[in-house]
UniProtKB/TrEMBL annotation:
Subcellular location: Endoplasmic reticulum
Family in the record: Belongs to the glycosyl hydrolase 47 family.
Organism: Eschrichtius robustus (California gray whale)
Enzyme class (EC, first level): hydrolase
Entry keyword set: Endoplasmic reticulum, Glycoprotein, Glycosidase, Hydrolase, Unfolded protein response
InterPro entries cross-referenced by the UniProt entry: 6hp_glycosidase-like_sf, EDEM1/2/3, Glyco_hydro_47, Seven-hairpin_glycosidases
One Gene Ontology MF term: calcium ion binding
Main location: endoplasmic reticulum
Pfam families noted in UniProt: Glyco_hydro_47 (PF01532)
Known EC number: 3.2.1.-
The keyword Hydrolase is assigned to this record: yes
This protein's name: alpha-1,2-Mannosidase
Keyword Glycoprotein (UniProt): yes
Amino acid sequence: MPLTCRGRVRGQEPSRGDVDDALGKFSLTLIDSLDTLVVLNKTKEFEDAVRKVLRDVNLDNDVVVSVFETNIRVLG
């Protein structure tokens, strides 16, 4: 939610159906952030972030994902 600088939290926001599954718990923003660090040549910050991801993020989620979002943000 870029205009309010808040994220969406499942259970605290009104459900938007499959949109919440496609955008949430899939870590697309995390992937965008890591890409940005590389593009800006922030290698130390990138390495720190990757360590935190490996320690704290679980990508083993059974969710509906958007093929479009996956293609443009993850593969791109």
